[in-house]
Amino acid sequence: MNARIPDTFWTTQEELLLFGGACLLGIPAGILFDIWRILRRMWKHPAVLVAVEDVLWILSAGLLLLCYADTFAKGVFRGYYAIGCGIGFVLYECTLGNLLTGFVTGFLRLLGTPVQELCAGFASICRKGAGSFVNSTKKDKKEKEIAQKRLQKPMKWVYNKTRTQKEREHIWQRQND
Description:
flat; mainly alpha; 0% strand; 177 residues
């Protein structure tokens, strides 16, 4: 009768600690989101790529929540973890997120100008190399087309020609007349 019952519940204090931890988990989610924002500010992205980045961020935030639940909550996922993470994310974005994103973007642009000038020669070499690669693939395609023309199937000779059903019926009628 004294069988051990597994611990499947939390006290109110433990649940509040888990909620607070989930709120703190919003900070790394916000930092990850800010990385995407900085990349978007530095380089223009087409709308499709922005959508893909948003989906990747949502998946990574969900993975963060699942890892949190597995590590700290015995693998049990509760809805208030997501709510806490959302609250932490919003608080981070409203306080530090906007400041850090603007600062880091400005710093990278300031740093990027001299780096771009130093790397301009390397970039031109890369462009020339890419151009010769593209031209070589065009030449390969043209050579492949020429080879395909030379290797076409030979034409069927008259004696190899398969007859249609109508032709067979016509020949059979002539033979029986």
